């Protein structure tokens, strides 16, 4: 018998899911973490790694160091106590596709589900919106189906298919809808009473009945979606002297949190684009990091308002990093070394940095037990990060059972609050 959950668009969703929640945030294109959570100043005799280092110094809140640009001080000042920073993570690639794959599945070849898919398949396999995707990346490997959304109007149409999305009025009177539903139920009962039905026909009717019940359960989502004036709009992010970026990250976050609030899902993926800065690097990254800080404030404030904040683990990552020098276009190209930031309200393991890089942003080895710097230690990869997260959220044995485990990867005690912190 297969150990994989049944993949389908609609689960039975009879009971509201109230367990742990996972949200992943992809900084798409390759984020420069030397301008965020792994700050680097310039080294004499080497190409300049950051222009801000000509006039500014690295700043620090608690144990977390950060680049003194954008709204990084506000970000780490407010959320640092609940944040684990993982630096020196080697994605071993300069390819966007491979980098996304490795950073969000823990494997650099096709065949593994994303972290969010794994979480959804374990905790809420029968919920109709168990795994919701608002960003660009999704992998299921058959363990669960996913639902992709672009905005809250799509969610509204899904949850309230009988409403006109423009006027909010019923397309048909409720009495007609009730009569139609009764006729369908009567017809299903008549069909099932036929002793000549084959097993395959009975299974088909059962799937249809289940789908109807699941769709009815989407009323829970309709109840939490705000009116049009309560939906977050696309945000204009101005890049000085350049273009204006139109970002819907906060609307993605709102949609993801509303699905989780409805109890119809357990995991969601969101993304912030435009980090692939081969030119005009500094100004665009600074604008994006300012928007990121604002969006993380929005995320946690909205989660608190919805009563979800205590249940969420938020994992932030990217394809890879960016080079430790500028190119001729004042941009930075692809660099395999990057970082993760992991957030949880009142985290016992927060205010910590695990992993490290040298002054030129090359990864350094760490001892797999103490997590201290060790030239003979291991180099942290996304596989190590995923294994630790899987263990922390309790899906590691499930992953092994369904053939997607990371059993051959060293276990790192990343969530042990007593292990080494690097300043």
Write a structural description.
The protein is α/β, with parallel strands linked by helices. Helix content is 32%, strand content 15%. It has helices at residues 72-79, 96-105, 115-123, 152-159, 174-192, 199-217, 219-224, 249-262, 281-305, 382-393, 396-401; strands spanning 21-27, 59-61, 64-66, 83-90, 131-133, 147-148, 235-238, 244-247, 267-272, 312-318, 321-322, 334-335, 337-344, 352-354. It has a single domain (21-159, 220-401), classed as Alkaline Phosphatase, subunit A, CATH 3.40.720. It starts with 20 loop residues before the first strand and ends in a 22-residue tail after the last helix. The longest helix is centred in the last third of the chain and has 25 residues, at 281-305.
CATH architecture identity: 3-Layer(aba) Sandwich
- Total number of beta strands: 14
Number of helices: 11
**What is the highest CATH level, the class?**
Alpha Beta
CATH domain fold name: Alkaline Phosphatase, subunit A
Principal-axis shape: globular
From the alpha-carbon coordinates, what is the Rg to the nearest angstrom?
Answer: 24 Å
Q: Give helix and strand order, one letter per element, not per position.
A: EEEHEHHEEHHHHEEHEHEEEEEHH
Distance from N terminus to C terminus (CA atoms, Å) equals: 50 Å
Q: Which range best describes the helical content: under 10%, 10-25%, 25-40%, 40-55%, 55-70% or over 70%?
A: 25-40%
Q: Strand share of the residues?
A: 5-15%
Q: In total, how many domains does the architecture comprise?
A: 1
Biggest β-sheet description: 8 strands, mixed
Structural classification: alpha/beta
Mean pLDDT: 89
Side by side, the strands of the main sheet go 6-5-9-1-10-13-4-14
Low-confidence stretches: 1-13
